[in-house]
Write a structure and sequence with these properties.
563 residues, Protein Transport Mog1p, Chain A, 3 domains, five-stranded mixed β-sheet, 19 helices, globular, disordered N terminus
Length: 563
């Protein structure tokens, strides 16, 4: 559910405006913002908001992000129209290249072999390109930065590089933007601060940013926490995530009784968080009952609960209309509380996305068809929590209600034939129409029909006993298919490595060995591999029934039995 970061930043940053005031002068803040992992603090500009670093940004060594509380209206470069620009600050940690010898050992000396550097130090220009959408690449290459050295004290000097460049927003509006970059030397690494603001207001902004940067002071550094591995214990996971939330003011880590989840939140209302915990654990109970894993799932899942919708969209760069998402790369589930949605709707969305999180590990971190994972997510999302247990409810509340949509589709003939719908790839499923929730409605109704029938709650007028085998056969064959594909890919990658390793340096051999698992993952992401696994799972489940007859019975059930 994640969309490209650059596009969404621009969608949020640009907005055409009528007559509006010019950008207001920025004021230095009065409170220090601490970076405990790196041992410094500074005073951001007044009325700027902290945005937690999401896993995708953390992978790019972004350790902090702040955003102006509101956008400012400024004139464009060409036609003089005013647009709204919401300035940001990205804080990067820049690690130096690792000195190695051909023996692969860090450090060493020339007697141990040929010394060289592994990796490279990113330049400020490269950091700007990593966060800035809409840059005119050819023009940016010609930009010559203004450079100066600024003393913080007698022994501490920052390097300032200011780039003024032309960018084009996703609406076609163009303007000059300043990237005001500051490089701070620390022991063993550097910190880069990359600010952006409109060139038309540079005079005031430049002075305010300089005051903010000159407020930097050393502070007590937090003890470094080891990175997580597959063998990390629960306590190590807890320690790692506690250190992560400590980097953003106002955020905390909450444990759950069964220790299957860790909740990261800035929601101060403990009653709301307790409701989240109850629903999470009740949902997991149902998932494990209906989809027992072949092996215990020991992974501790992270659930991030934002206090407001605005903070949710800032964190994930998501567009309006998204109520929650699961990131399979980080295995994090992200939600928010909203007075507009109502508490029940938030919890229903959580159960829906929580199933995606569970399903991710059920199939060895591989993919299922959308009819199955979105339909099942909606099915469980519609459950009611009663007495600590989740119970089925076809009516569903708020944005997850699907009955009206599917009944209208069946009445108007705008649904997709079952044989087509269940075989859609992800893109086709998402865009099948006629509305943006049609795929969800049809998939939900199929899963509801199958699950209720398996529970003995569908009349024989609609139900046939062989339908009870569709989901179990699909799940079994899907899991087996991905296991076989993974084993085959691992064998092929290992064989290729054996053929090539004698031609590699020791350093390259070690790097290749360490990355075999990642290479296997790339192979498994191939469409051909996925399609082969999916085809077998479909053949062993849906292929064993009369799909046309199923469609007629399903339609009659939805139209006649669901109220």
């Amino acid at each position: 559910m994640r969309t490209p970061r650059t596009v969404l930043i621009l969608a949020a940053a640009w907005a055409l405006a009528g007559l509006a005031p010019e950008a207001a002068a920025q004021k230095p803040g009065t409170k220090f913002r601490d970076f405990p992992a790196m041992g410094f603090k500074f005073k951001p500009l007044a009325e700027w908001l902290d945005v937690p670093t999401n896993p995708d940004d953390a992978a790019r060594n972004i350790v902090g992000q702040l955003q102006a509380e509101r956008g400012e209206y400024v004139k464009t470069s060409e036609d003089g129209d005013r647009v709204q620009w919401r300035s940001q600050l990205f804080v990067f940690r820049i690690n130096p290249p690792v000195a190695i010898t051909d023996g692969g050992k860090e450090g060493g000396d020339l007697r141990g072999g040929v010394a060289r550097e592994q990796g490279k130090e990113e330049t400020l220009r490269e950091l700007i390109q990593s966060i800035a959408g809409g840059l005119r690449e050819a023009e940016f290459k010609e930009v010559v930065p203004e450079v100066e050295e600024i003393k913080l004290n007698k022994s501490w000097i920052m390097r300032r590089e200011v780039y003024t460049t032309f960018i084009v927003g996703n609406t076609g509006v163009a303007m000059d933007i300043v990237y005001d970059c500051w490089l701070l030397p620390m022991t063993g690494f550097k910190v880069a601060f990359v600010w952006d603001y409109p060139a038309s207001v540079r005079k005031d902004w430049s002075k305010a940013v300089e005051k903010s940067m000159k407020s930097i002071r050393l502070s007590e550094a937090m003890e470094e926490v080891a990175a997580l591995t597959e063998s990390s214990s629960y306590e190590e996971m807890k320690q790692f995530h506690e250190a992560e939330v400590a980097q953003t003011p106002g955020w905390r880590l909450v444990e759950t009784p069964r220790k299957q989840y860790l909740i990261k939140t800035n929601e101060a209302d403990n009653k709301k968080i307790n409701e989240v915990i109850k629903r999470l654990e009740a949902s997991r109970e149902v998932f494990e009952e209906d989809f027992p894993p072949a092996q215990p799932i020991e992974h501790v899942s992270v659930v991030r609960v934002c206090a407001t919708e605005e903070e949710f969209h800032q964190y994930g760069d998501t567009p309006p209309g998204v109520a929650g998402w699961f990131n399979p790369r980080s295995t994090e589930l992200v939600l928010f509380f909203s007075n507009d949605m109502g508490g029940d709707a938030v919890l229903e969305v959580m159960t829906h996305e929580g199933f995606h999180q569970y399903c991710h590990f059920l199939f060895g971190e591989m993919e299922a068809h959308r009819w199955f994972d979105e339909g099942t997510g909606d099915y469980y999302g519609g459950f009611d929590l009663k007495g600590g247990k989740l119970v089925t409810d076809a009516n569903m509340s708020g944005g997850l209600r699907r009955i009206d949509e599917i009944k209208e589709m069946l009445t108007n003939g705008t649904y997709k034939p079952i044989s087509v719908h269940i075989r859609f790839d992800h893109g086709s499923w998402q865009s099948q129409g006629p509305s943006n929730v049609s795929g969800y409605a049809q998939s939900w109704s199929i899963i509801y029909f199958l699950r209720q029938g398996m529970r003995g709650k569908v009349s024989s007028k609609y139900w046939k006993k062989e339908y009870a085998e569709i989901l179990p056969n699909y799940i079994r064959e899907l899991a087996a298919g991905w296991d076989a594909a993974k084993e085959k890919a691992l064998k092929e990658v290992a064989e290729n490595f054996e053929k090539e390793k004698e031609h590699m340096s020791e350093e390259d051999r070690k790097a290749a060995e360490a990355n075999i698992a990642r290479i296997v993952e790339w192979v498994l992401k191939d469409d051909k591999t996925r399609d082969e696994v999916w085809a077998r799972a479909m053949g062993e489940s849906w292929g064993k029934i009369d799909e046309y007859e199923f469609e007629e019975r399903w339609k009659a059930y939805v139209l006649d039995a669901l109220k």
